[in-house]
Design brief:
103 residues; mainly beta; Rieske Iron-sulfur Protein; four-stranded antiparallel β-sheet; three-stranded antiparallel β-sheet; 10 strands; globular
Length: 103
């Protein structure tokens, strides 16, 4: 069961944009893909690059350090299938984006 927490105003993250948000000492990459919000762990498993600062193209974010590609909907790594990042549920309520935290 997830515990949801507010991480951003919907209006603060336009379509095609992302950023890093921190909740309870954990960092998440939050992305707006055509009005749908997606959250994955922020650290690239290759060298720890901030995925929230990456470039988004066709539903994939590219790590700003070495270009590894991740599907923001699932966390799958398209550059190295054995190195995915965790994907986290999101929801929008009352103009706020919420991320579901494990536990």
């Amino acid at each position: 069961m997830s515990r949801y927490v507010v991480v951003a105003d919907v209006s603060s993250l336009p379509p095609g944009k992302g950023r890093t948000v921190e909740v309870g000492g954990r960092r998440f990459a939050l992305w707006n893909l055509d009005g749908e919000f997606h959250a994955i762990d922020d650290a690239c498993p290759h060298r720890g690059g901030p995925l929230g600062a990456g470039v988004l193209e066709n539903g994939s974010v590219f790590c700003p350090l070495h270009g590894w590609e991740f599907d923001i909907r699932t966390g799958s790594c398209l550059s190295n299938s054995s190195r995915p990042v965790a994907s986290h549920p999101t929801k929008v309520e009352a103009g706020q984006v919420w991320i579901g935290l494990p536990g």
